[in-house]
Write a structure and sequence with these properties.
globular, 338 residues, 17% strand, four-stranded antiparallel β-sheet, alpha+beta
Amino acid sequence: MRGRRGFTLVELLVVIAIIGILVALLLPAVQAAREAARRMQCGNNLKQLGLANHNYHDTFKSLPMAYSVTIQPNMSFNVQSWGSSILPFIEQQPLYDQYDPRFPACNQAGAQGLQNMTVIQTVIQTFLCPSAPPGGTRIYNGAIPSGAVPGLPTLTWRAAPSDYCIATGVRGAFANLAYAASGGAGGTRHGAIQPHINLLFANYMDFKNNNLSNITDGTSNTILLGERTGGGPSFYAKRIPVSIPAIAPLNGGGWGDALNGEHWLSGSLYTGITSVPQEGPCGINCTNMRGYGFHSFHNQGCQFAMCDGSVRFMSQSVAGLVLAGQITREKGEVIPNE
């Protein structure tokens, strides 16, 4: 009788090894495809937010305030953010109807302040980049300390994250380095959207004219919004979480958070953020600390919504002058081609 021939152990091990090699070769391609899909969705979110700002402009003849602070003579106060202003324009009218813009969203503004805070704790997918850590795990505790704005008491709140923020302007070490070869960092370095601060009926900081017509550098050359991984409680040094509890509440990582509208880029070191923040030449993907850098979990760069409604990917190795020139709205830089 002829015996039945099966696989030998060696043959089986060879087959398993070949399958393992094929999986190892295929896995990076699958991961790259998934990241490409996440990046596309992230860009679509930025597109929607950019269009929402344009629709707001069409309705009110101005872009929304980056944030607003009002102190009345009776010492009543109000603090609002750009994110809550555009809710009706991103198909969130029912949520906006629950929000009363006459009151800030915080623990210190009575029952209506608490109701508004409940609203800004709602996770909205349009404000979340799929490449970032899960948004539902990044609800964080924010704060503005007493005296940060004259007459404003300490404010505290909880907020759902936003992975996108305003580009308010360029300053500090980043500005000095970016403009070193082109005459220095003088002149106006404001971004497209600015705040309005009204103290006791005196305009402390008045940029009410957030008009597209004020963007004299051209809407296609000026950033409206950029990626900056939001939420909390950690900062990121590149992609490594860093805990700095003393300043974590100041990061402005929520869509309904007024601090999200204050992001004057001063850059960071290429190694990322440290417990004592240091300004430097890196503007993209070194840290997500407010004022120190744009940040994403995409490979090699971040996406930006431009003032003309387009979305642009910018490399983390982009020259400082190129990034700075696309943040400012009226400085008149000649931006080199890259």
